[in-house]
């Protein structure tokens, strides 16, 4: 073991946008009680100095990881990070090897989400611990293949004061004023089909705005708050803050009243957490929902699941609040075309993804069985295919030997990229529509975004190898 008092020289990573303090989390799943981590680690000056080379607003939970290694006697540790965090892999590996007896290996294959946890590869490499960064525990630690798995959410501290003030400046606190501010009279369940994206930001000092102190009369604006796992703690605090009236504010430009803020949940995800394939459907549609995070991939899942709810996105890095739109009509028309083109076709390639845990034998079995017992008028022959990543060029190699492809990796591959493929590329849900197992979205108005939601037909099929009727 290397001398703990003199760790090797490290390159300091570039600084990221955000607050300068590490996040304080109330989640026991991401930050353990201090008494579960030996004081010898917590008070190790050399270790803390090494950790300081990492961004201070990113919680990589190094102390917890080292405690886990010590407790279980791990000797070979696999580190799996998404591409946005890959730059810190070598620094983390260096710290682990300097302050424990373990060696490390970095799994550098692309990691799109929690479904890509690669316990199979880690086990094959002889690792006895896998540390997966940046995603929640979608694949439970009790079913990973013969290897201990530690999930590190990498919670990120943000400027929460700016977030609250930006919301209160731009979104009126009463339902009537809020709906007026949208510039449209929105009926519950009415789809928003435009691609509108409008930038909102806090006004500069001295900007002429009428005082809002006497304006908060009437039912409060209802807001559903969602985010990725990195910001769920901040999301919880945002709910508490917005649910209370603003007191002693120095700015007359902020709406002072309480909002009817909620944090919806799609089990087994954390409250407010959404994935690109899984987002809660809100039966009592709020006036809007706010997504806390960068990018649109996760946000779009919430918009697909709730087409009648206006969406706003607060990017904690750029500190911008934007109104977001999604072209539901175009998406549904495109997917309907794929479904219609697949009807009556005889040979189906059923693709089980091999990127981490994306694929599942249960799905492969359920879809193959469905092709043999569905209500389609013509017979369907299923051909199992194992494939890590899909591309039009890869599937084009099958030429005319396969008429339709069904991929089980992620429904968003079909939704977002299906039109780029020469042959219909169906999701698991769409395959059941074609085969008559359940109705389409044009019948019930709902395009499901519940791929990992507890009790969904997709989750049950993973376990049982057959589909339940919704």
Structural notes for this entry:
With 470 residues, the protein is of the alpha/beta class. It folds into 3 domains: 34-152, 3-Layer(aba) Sandwich (Rossmann fold), CATH 3.40.50; 160-326, 3-Layer(aba) Sandwich (Rossmann fold), CATH 3.40.50.11850; 330-464, Rossmann fold, CATH 3.40.50.11860. 29% of the residues lie in helices and 14% in strands. It has 16 helices and 14 strands. It has helices spanning 39-42, 45-51, 62-72, 89-98, 119-124, 160-170, 175-181, 232-242, 297-305, 328-342, 361-373, 392-396, 411-417, 428-434, 441-444, 457-464; strands at 76-80, 103-107, 129-133, 148-152, 198-200, 222-227, 260-262, 288-292, 311-315, 320-324, 347-353, 381-387, 404-407, 425-426. The strands form 3 sheets. The protein has a 6-stranded mixed beta sheet, sandwiched between helices. It has a 4-stranded parallel beta sheet with strand order 2-1-3-4. Strand 6, helix 8 (232-242) and strand 7 (260-262) form a beta-alpha-beta unit. Helix 10 crosses helix 14 (428-434) and helix 11 crosses helix 16 (457-464). The longest helix is centred in the C-terminal third of the chain and has 15 residues, at 328-342. The chain is flat, with a radius of gyration of 24 Å. It starts with 38 loop residues before the first helix and ends in a 6-residue tail after the last helix. This is 2-(3-amino-3-carboxypropyl)histidine synthase subunit 1. Pathway: Protein modification; peptidyl-diphthamide biosynthesis.
């Amino acid at each position: 073991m290397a001398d703990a008092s003199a760790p090797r020289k490290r390159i300091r990573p570039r600084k990221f946008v955000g607050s300068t303090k590490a996040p304080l989390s109330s989640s026991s799943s991401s930050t353990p009680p201090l008494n579960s981590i030996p004081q010898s680690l917590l008070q190790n000056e050399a270790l803390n100095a090494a950790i300081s080379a990492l961004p201070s607003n990113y919680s990589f939970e190094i102390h917890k990881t080292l405690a886990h290694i010590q407790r279980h006697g791990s000797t070979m540790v696999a580190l799996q990070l998404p591409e946005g965090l890959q730059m810190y892999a070598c620094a983390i590996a260096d710290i682990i090897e300097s302050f424990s007896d373990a060696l490390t290996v970095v799994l550098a294959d692309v990691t799109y989400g929690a479904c890509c946890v690669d316990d199979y590869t880690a086990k094959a490499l002889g690792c006895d611990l896998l540390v997966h960064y940046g995603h929640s525990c979608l694949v439970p630690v009790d079913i990973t293949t013969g290897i201990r798995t530690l999930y590190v959410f990498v919670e990120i501290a943000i400027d929460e004061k700016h977030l609250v003030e930006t919301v209160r400046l731009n979104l009126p606190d009463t339902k009537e004023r809020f709906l007026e501010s949208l510039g449209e009279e929105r009926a519950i369940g009415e789809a928003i089909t435009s691609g509108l994206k409008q930038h909102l930001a806090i006004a500069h000092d001295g900007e002429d705005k009428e005082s809002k102190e006497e304006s908060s009369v009437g039912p409060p604006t209802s807001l559903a708050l969602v985010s990725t796992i990195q910001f769920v703690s901040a999301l919880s605090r945002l709910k508490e803050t917005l649910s209370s009236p603003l007191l002693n504010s120095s700015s007359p430009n902020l709406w002072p009243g309480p909002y009817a803020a909620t944090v919806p949940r799609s089990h087994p995800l954390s409250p407010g957490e959404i994935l690109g394939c899984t987002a809660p459907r809100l039966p009592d549609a709020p006036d809007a929902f706010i997504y806390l995070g960068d990018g649109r991939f996760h946000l779009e899942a919430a918009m697909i699941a709730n087409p009648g709810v206006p969406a706003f996105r607060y990017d904690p890095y750029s500190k911008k609040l934007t109104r977001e739109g999604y072209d539901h009509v175009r998406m549904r028309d495109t997917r309907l075309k794929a479904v219609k083109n697949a009807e009556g076709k005889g040979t189906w390639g059923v693709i089980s993804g091999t990127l981490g845990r994306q694929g599942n034998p249960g799905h492969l079995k359920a879809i193959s069985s469905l092709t043999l017992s569905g209500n389609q008028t013509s017979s369907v022959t299923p051909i199992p295919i194992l494939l890590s990543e899909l591309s039009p060029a890869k599937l084009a190699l099958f030429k005319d030997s396969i008429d339709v492809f069904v991929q089980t990796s992620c429904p968003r591959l079909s939704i977002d990229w299906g039109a780029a493929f020469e042959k219909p590329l169906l999701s698991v849900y769409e395959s059941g529509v074609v085969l008559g197992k359940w109705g389409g979205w044009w019948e019930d108005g709902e395009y499901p975004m519940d791929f990992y939601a507890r009790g969904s037909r997709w989750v049950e099929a993973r376990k049982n190898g057959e589909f339940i009727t919704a």
